[in-house]
């Protein structure tokens, strides 16, 4: 254990250096930073390569290990309930912060246009629910449709519980081996993290430019402030409330996952790292991590929910529209409700923002004013999404150990 902690501590130190050097390199040598994008992209591709087989095998093995549908139901309800709770707390924090600081002055939307919103297919709850069901599991696997993969893996795992012991043993051994092989490959990819992080950060800084951030500094600072508050105050408080675990010691141990999420801006790409660190360093049982983390990578959206709440209220201020307490309550309920389901759709955060703006009667054109810093804030909110996954996984694991 001590050797593993030292190994991850060394990697984390190198990753921090990679972030700092990436920032400096992106500012001083933007042209070179733009040209070396392929290095960071290859790093993310290697991580994403592992996700589909890892998610499918991990969920199947976890369900088979639980042994009964009753146990699966208990763990599933706890997991979904905790994810909804943390998302709701993130939304409440964001709305309170916007009411305290009230940033955003009224500007005209004449000449503003956000054409990307027009490319979205019309949204309906019927289409959202149907999108959970894989009509062709091989197509879902090849295209990485995570919600469909999770649904099929759960059904496949439940069906396997009814097989004779010999058949269950064969399937369990096979998918356990697949999961272990994917995690071994993840170990190799993790060694490339400092280089990948350097490449990704320097490219983003060179592409976005520091001037863009300064132009919207109040908006950026508020989003980042809420994300940090939720990550360092709210989530540790939730972990402490439900368990006796020292939240800051735990978060320090598994910090590589949020750092990776910040660099890649992808919960899915971070999943192999999250599973490795919570099991090896966070002392979470493999069955719990294998079920809770893949689900969280798809439906847990604390960072996205907080960001959307601030963005919508900011757009309301830009449009000169005063939202009542009832409107803000409706905003919060909508964000929490959509955060679980819309994750299965392409461009999830964009879909959610368009739905909410239409529901509140706010002009979509104002999205053009904030999209310039979306890539940088996406890194921050993804890091919070993963932090929430780590917290919920630890809570569920502690519940399971008590039982």
From TrEMBL:
<dbReference type="InterPro" id="IPR036458">
    <property type="entry name" value="Na:dicarbo_symporter_sf"/>
</dbReference>
<dbReference type="GO" id="GO:0005886">
    <property type="term" value="C:plasma membrane"/>
</dbReference>
<feature type="transmembrane region" description="Helical">
    <location>
        <begin position="42"/>
        <end position="68"/>
    </location>
</feature>
<dbReference type="Pfam" id="PF00375">
    <property type="entry name" value="SDF"/>
</dbReference>
<keyword id="KW-0472">Membrane</keyword>
<dbReference type="GO" id="GO:0015293">
    <property type="term" value="F:symporter activity"/>
</dbReference>
<keyword id="KW-1003">Cell membrane</keyword>
<feature type="transmembrane region" description="Helical">
    <location>
        <begin position="80"/>
        <end position="103"/>
    </location>
</feature>
<protein>
    <submittedName>
        <fullName>Sodium:dicarboxylate symporter</fullName>
    </submittedName>
</protein>
<feature type="transmembrane region" description="Helical">
    <location>
        <begin position="12"/>
        <end position="30"/>
    </location>
</feature>
<keyword id="KW-1133">Transmembrane helix</keyword>
<feature type="transmembrane region" description="Helical">
    <location>
        <begin position="290"/>
        <end position="316"/>
    </location>
</feature>
<feature type="transmembrane region" description="Helical">
    <location>
        <begin position="123"/>
        <end position="142"/>
    </location>
</feature>
<dbReference type="InterPro" id="IPR001991">
    <property type="entry name" value="Na-dicarboxylate_symporter"/>
</dbReference>
<keyword id="KW-0812">Transmembrane</keyword>
<keyword id="KW-0813">Transport</keyword>
<feature type="transmembrane region" description="Helical">
    <location>
        <begin position="185"/>
        <end position="205"/>
    </location>
</feature>
<feature type="transmembrane region" description="Helical">
    <location>
        <begin position="328"/>
        <end position="357"/>
    </location>
</feature>
<feature type="transmembrane region" description="Helical">
    <location>
        <begin position="149"/>
        <end position="165"/>
    </location>
</feature>
<feature type="transmembrane region" description="Helical">
    <location>
        <begin position="217"/>
        <end position="239"/>
    </location>
</feature>
């Amino acid at each position: 254990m001590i050797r593993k902690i030292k190994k991850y501590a060394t990697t984390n130190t190198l990753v921090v250096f990679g972030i700092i050097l990436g920032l400096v390199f992106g500012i001083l040598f933007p042209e070179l930073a733009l040209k070396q994008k392929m290095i960071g992209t290859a790093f993310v591709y290697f991580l994403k390569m592992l996700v589909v087989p890892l998610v499918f095998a991990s969920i199947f093995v976890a369900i088979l290990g639980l042994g009964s549908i009753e146990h699966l139901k208990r763990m599933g309800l706890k997991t979904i309930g905790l994810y909804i709770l943390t998302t709701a707390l993130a939304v409440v924090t964001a709305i309170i912060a916007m009411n305290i600081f009230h940033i955003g002055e009224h500007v005209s939307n004449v000449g503003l246009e956000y054409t990307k919103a027009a490319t979205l297919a019309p949204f309906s709850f019927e289409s959202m629910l149907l999108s959970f069901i894989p009509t062709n599991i091989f197509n879902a696997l090849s295209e990485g449709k995570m919600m469909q993969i999770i649904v099929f893996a759960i059904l496949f795992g439940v069906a396997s519980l009814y097989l004779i012991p010999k058949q269950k043993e064969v399937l369990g051994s096979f998918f356990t081996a697949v999961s272990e092989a994917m995690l071994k490959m993840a170990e190799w990819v993790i060694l490339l993290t400092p280089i990948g992080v350097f490449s990704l950060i320097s490219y983003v800084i060179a592409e976005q430019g520091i001037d863009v951030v300064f132009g919207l500094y109040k908006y950026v600072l508020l989003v980042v402030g809420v994300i940090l508050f939720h990550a360092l105050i709210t989530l540790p408080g939730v972990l402490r409330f439900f368990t006796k675990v020292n939240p800051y010691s735990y978060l320090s141990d598994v910090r590589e996952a949020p750092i990776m999420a910040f660099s890649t801006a992808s919960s899915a790409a971070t999943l192999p790292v999250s599973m490795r660190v919570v099991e090896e360093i966070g002392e979470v049982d493999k069955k719990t991590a294998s079920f809770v983390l893949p689900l969280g990578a798809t439906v847990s959206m604390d960072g996205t929910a907080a960001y959307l709440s601030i963005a919508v209220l900011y757009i309301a201020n830009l449009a000169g529209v005063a939202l009542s307490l009832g409107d803000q309550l409706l905003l919060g309920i909508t964000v929490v409700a959509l955060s679980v389901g819309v994750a299965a759709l392409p461009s999830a955060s964009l879909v959610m923002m368009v739905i909410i703006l239409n529901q509140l009667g706010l002009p979509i054109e104002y999205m053009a004013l904030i999209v310039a810093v979306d890539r940088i804030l996406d890194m921050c909110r993804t890091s919070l999404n993963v932090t929430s996954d780590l917290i919920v996984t630890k809570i569920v694991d502690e519940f399971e150990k008590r039982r």
